[in-house]
Amino acid sequence: YGAAQAVPGPLFTVAAFLGASIAPGAEGVLLAVIALVAIFLPGLLLIVGVLPFWSALQGRPAVPALVRGANAAVVGVLAAALYDPVATSALVDVPTVALAVLCTALLIVVRVPAWVVVIVGAGGGMLLSAF
């Protein structure tokens, strides 16, 4: 699971895969590109639309509170996504919980680079699945 999450933007990867799987050959590549553009375009248009007004908006007192609120909402959604389905299906025994705690401690306490934590998590997961 940790190795799969290391791929940038799983949603974008799945979109490209689904586009490519519709048709074989060059047509599949074209459909993969169309799917990627369709996934990226709304966010890109939102940024392009807001960017000219962002410096003017930053000066308003309500904007920092709005950004903090949006940040808190995103953290809540990520925590919910971490709990279900990840924690409820992956953390099934003491060794997997220990591996998760180890990786979290490496990332937060020791401040090991994320790519090292991904390797430790993937390696630990392979070791646990072998036993």
Tag the structure with descriptive keywords.
0% strand, mainly alpha, single chain
Number of helices: 6
Structural class: mainly alpha
Order of SSEs: HHHHHH
Q: Describe the global form.
A: flat
Overall helicity: over 70%
Identify low-pLDDT runs: none
Largest sheet, described in full?
none
Number of strands: 0
Please state the CA-atom Rg, rounded to the nearest Å. Answer: 20 Å
Strand content: under 5%
Compute the average pLDDT. 88
| Domain count | 3
What is the terminal-to-terminal distance? 17 Å
How would you portray this structure in words?
The chain is mainly alpha-helical. The protein has helices at residues 2-5, 10-22, 25-58, 62-90, 94-108, 114-130. The model has no long low-confidence stretch (mean pLDDT 88). It folds into three domains: 1-58, no CATH class; 61-90; 91-131, no CATH class. The chain is flat, with a radius of gyration of 20 Å. α2 (10-22) packs antiparallel against α3 and α5 runs antiparallel to α6.
Outline:
This protein is mainly α. 85% of the residues lie in helices and 0% in strands. Helix 2 (10-22) runs antiparallel to helix 3 (25-58) and helix 5 packs antiparallel against helix 6.
